[in-house]
Amino acid sequence: MRVNILLSALLPLVCWGLVREGQGGETPSLASPLVVVPAAKEVRLYGTIYPSRFNAARGEEARYHLLVWRGGTSPHALIETPADDLAFHDALVTLGGTPGENMTMAAWQQRHEQASPASRAKVTGSPLEIWIAWAGNATGIPIARAFRSAVTPVESPHGLFAWRFGGNRARWFNRLPFASRPGCLVCLYSCPSGKVSNAALSIHDYVTLPGRFSANEEELPPDGTPVIVVVRLLA
Prior knowledge:
Blueprint: H1 2-14, E1 34-37, E2 42-49, H2 51-56, E3 65-69, E4 79-81, H3 85-94, H4 106-109, E5 128-134, E6 137-142, E7 147-149, E8 163-165, H5 172-175, E9 184-187, E10 196-198, H6 203-208, E11 213-215, E12 225-233
Parallel strand pairs: 3-4
Antiparallel strand pairs: 1-2, 2-4, 2-12, 3-9, 5-6, 5-12, 7-11, 8-10
């Protein structure tokens, strides 16, 4: 516990290169886990990473979530953050992001129906890029380097990752006071709940090969390490 507290204090200093000194220098922390930097068109989030836990997960939603709000119900994510997923959505809107709003809940509900067009839908919305950094890796890495894939990246012209601002804020569980909700900030597949998700892959792709992604434990720090996630609006 004392080690994690120390890392939390040091992380803003060692990640200076990633968050672009000279473009605001704003860095998230445990106390203020979400920072918007308009000059860089970035949302920066404080979180904790769990590569080994991600790889060991089994069952529904295993190896599906990249980044979740720790107050939500979504399990097994690679990274958890105290930043609220709805606040994350609103931060992207303030930067000029346009949510695609094309995914329906049928994409998840009909995921085991082979003929379902909903489960094959792919998210639309403003394009984004995602980086992570941690103590000892001040420059950070693009999120693609955080994973190994069980397949060659030929499933999409974008490779295996094409991040889009999907939106999904208007779901009933986001509007009902005190209702439990998934809390998905970023999902590895096109998702009807994730505020950001991956246009390269559909939920049908997930059901077909749920173990497609594994966390790159040779590249990433161990479970429980504080990280900074940078989500950058590209257009």
